[in-house]
Design a protein that fits this description.
By secondary structure, the protein is an alpha+beta fold. It is built from 16 helices and 8 strands. Helix content is 42%, strand content 13%. A 4-stranded mixed beta sheet has the order 5-1-7-6, with helices on one face.
Length: 346
């Protein structure tokens, strides 16, 4: 087992040591990067991490940031609740310091079980497993653990560090390197579907591969929710270098963020009230794909003017709409940013 994981760690260092949050690693950068990496991709975080650290180089600067400063710095990372959790955690830890006990860390506002274990394993480099989807997938396959996701798989994965052989892996290689390597493997090789077993550093002794049921693990009792297709018009109103947005209201997705004027032109969910509905033909523009909650979204950008938008969506007369200079944008929704980048407006 030790030889397997030594090979895995060497592969990880060779392939992914260039990730900026792994250079000059500190407890603070571990906190920031691990919260950033939740519910998003490495590529997305790569685009934002360095600028964020430059703006907020330490706990004190982050703790003292205003909510608006943080919103703007977080732009493009999505799921703003994570930024709010990071802000809460930075304020608490700047007073108390980084505890070396998972239970103590979990008691801090904004820090959950995963972040707590990541701080111990990756930040402190002490024995722990930062159990995310990647670790659950890799380790349930390697050790052939058939405990269902919903029936205690997290606990069974964490308990592996108590096994004599695996404890030796953590102590010999180092918890940080082991956790990072497992994350890398799950993200790129040991995938949910069509895992690349022939190139996997752990293939030789992977119990699921030997049995041939690797795609059946980890076991899930509940079938994944089928995503609902949602087709949206995203109006692009650009005048004199300024772009039109509307502000999201309380109770809506992405509350208080700004978004391109938006309307639904096709959706099977009659209960969806997040956007006004309009009756038009499918636009000829190429869709930009995004998603939120249970919806699989196709965003169709359409050039327009303010007058036409208000004619098509009369309800926007009652909303806060405003032109912003492209060089001084507020916190805009991730979907809006993605559409604008695809159009090379940003």
């Amino acid at each position: 087992m030790l030889k397997d994981f030594q090979g895995l760690a060497e592969w990880s260092v060779q392939e992914y040591s260039i990730l900026p949050w792994r250079n000059n690693r500190s407890l603070y950068t571990t906190l920031v990067s691990e919260i950033m990496l939740q519910q998003t991709t490495v590529g997305t975080v790569l685009n934002r991490y360095s600028d964020f650290i430059q703006q907020f180089p330490d706990l004190k600067s982050l703790a003292e940031a205003t909510e608006e400063e943080l919103r703007i710095a977080w732009q493009g990372l999505g799921y703003y609740r994570r930024a709010a959790n990071l802000h809460k955690a930075s304020k608490a830890i700047s007073k108390s310091g980084f505890a070396e006990c998972e239970d103590t860390l979990k008691s801090i506002p904004g820090i959950g079980p995963y972040t707590a274990s990541a701080i111990i394993a990756i930040g402190h480099d002490k024995p722990a497993l930062a159990v995310d989807g990647n670790l659950k997938r890799v380790l349930s396959r390697y050790f052939l653990i058939d405990t269902p996701y919903e029936k205690g798989l997290d606990d069974d994965i964490r308990a592996l560090k108590e096994l004599k052989e695996f404890s030796k892996v953590l102590s010999s290689i180092g918890p940080r390197k082991v956790n990072e390597a497992l994350m890398d493997l799950g993200r790129t090789v040991c995938r949910v579907k069509n895992p690349l077993c022939l190139t996997c550093p752990l293939a030789k002794n992977c119990q699921a591969l030997k049995k041939g049921n690797q795609e059946e693990l980890p076991v899930r009792l509940k079938k994944p929710t089928k995503l609902i297709p949602l087709k949206l018009i995203r109006y692009i109103c650009l005048e004199d270098g300024k772009l039109l947005f509307y502000k999201k209201e309380k109770g809506e997705w992405l509350e208080n963020q700004w978004e391109l004027p938006t309307a639904i032109f096709e959706c099977d969910d009659e209960k969806l009230k997040q956007y006004p509905k309009i009756n038009i033909k499918k636009p000829s523009s190429k869709a930009v794909k995004t998603g939120i909650t249970k919806y699989k979204i196709e965003n169709f950008p359409v050039s327009s003017c303010k007058t036409e938008i208000l004619e098509n969506i009369p309800s926007y007369e009652k909303r806060e709409i405003k032109f912003f200079d492209l060089n001084e944008l507020p916190l805009i929704s991730t979907a809006s940013e993605k559409v604008l980048r695809k159009l090379k407006i940003l």
